[in-house]
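Appendix C: a fully annotated inverse folding record. The material below is reproduced so that readers can follow the format used throughout the book. The structure is listed first as tokens, followed by the designed sequence.
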């Protein structure tokens, strides 16, 4: 690379077909230890619900486990979906994590539910009944309208500025808050509040450059004196391009099944190879593949260098959802070696 770019990890704790969530979580412990040895900067886990192929439904619990299994790497949420939780509860959870693991915890926040509307209703009892909310944009609009207030409330709890209510435990240094997004809303809010921003390039690549421009142009010094942006990138690296493409085929089919309303465990490459794709399916996969980095080490290093230069970000957060855990570990090794 022409300039130094930090590498980090986004782990969705994928549950491979033929396996289970307990095994997926053990895989996460193995991966975070490898990431620390390889020099990755931070390791985040994401909140998803009612997703049989993703085991990270409770980021605070998993973060505590991963931080206890490591010594130096930053561990955090990518992210906690704030509208699903009371701000005081989030402040207590992350205050405890920061007290247990000082200066190693990140609090990345999102405003999407991380699930379908019916499950979101089960998480947020104040919502309209699921039958009424289904197919309606009202719930999403309410979430967007309420998010800045929820964020302000959470920030006050973390910093001991909430009046008569004290979030206990409170770490001497509260965990830094990041805003996450896949559109311009969180980008602009992060800029206005002077917060670091992480953009989901891995599933909204067409919006990456506009969102980063909006973040930087709207930035006002706050927590940060200058803007700091990171992007999430899907990466599949193997000794040969053919191996890398075979590895990536699992996630391609998984996303397609999710789009068709049939989420499940992460399919194997053999399952992906035998799936009866339609022409529309192929077009959807090709569209998503434009923003996925796949190849041998030299090719992946070149693609990531170009992406970092194009976006101007100082940090890339890599996510690799591979059915074969050994291949997944090897991918992170090859990326770290190629960019070292």
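Designed amino acids, in order:
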């Amino acid at each position: 690379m022409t300039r130094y770019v930090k590498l980090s990890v986004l782990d969705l704790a994928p549950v491979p077909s033929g396996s289970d969530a307990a095994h997926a979580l053990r895989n996460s412990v193995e991966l975070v230890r490898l990431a620390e040895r390889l020099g990755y900067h931070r390791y985040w886990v994401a909140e998803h619900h009612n997703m049989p192929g993703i085991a990270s439904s409770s980021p605070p619990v998993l973060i505590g486990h991963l931080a206890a299994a490591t010594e130096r790497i930053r561990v955090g949420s990518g992210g906690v979906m704030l509208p699903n939780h009371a701000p005081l509860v989030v402040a207590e959870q992350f205050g405890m994590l920061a007290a247990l693991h000082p200066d190693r915890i990140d609090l990345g926040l999102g405003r999407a539910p991380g699930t379908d509307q019916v499950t979101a209703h089960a998480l947020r009892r104040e919502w309209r009944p699921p039958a009424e909310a289904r197919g309606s944009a009202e719930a999403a609009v309410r979430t967007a309208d309420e998010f800045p207030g929820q964020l302000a409330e959470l920030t006050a709890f973390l910093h001991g500025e909430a009046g008569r209510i004290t979030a206990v435990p409170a770490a001497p240094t509260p965990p830094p808050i990041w805003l996450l997004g896949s559109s311009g809303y969180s980008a602009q809010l992060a800029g206005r509040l002077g917060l670091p921003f992480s953009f989901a390039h891995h599933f909204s690549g067409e919006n990456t450059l506009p969102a980063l421009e909006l973040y930087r142009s709207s930035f006002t010094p706050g927590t940060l004196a200058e803007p700091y942006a990171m992007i999430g990138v899907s990466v599949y690296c193997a000794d040969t391009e053919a191996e890398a493409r075979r590895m990536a085929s699992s996630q391609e089919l998984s996303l397609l099944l999710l789009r068709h309303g049939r989420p499940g465990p992460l399919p194997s490459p053999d399952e992906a190879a035998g799936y009866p794709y339609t022409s529309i399916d192929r077009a959807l996969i090709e569209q998503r593949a434009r923003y996925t980095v796949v190849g041998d080490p030299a090719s992946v290093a070149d693609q990531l260098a170009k992406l970092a230069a194009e976006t101007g970000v100082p940090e890339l957060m890599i996510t690799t959802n591979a059915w074969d855990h050994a291949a997944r570990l090897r991918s992170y090794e090859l990326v770290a070696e190629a960019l070292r």
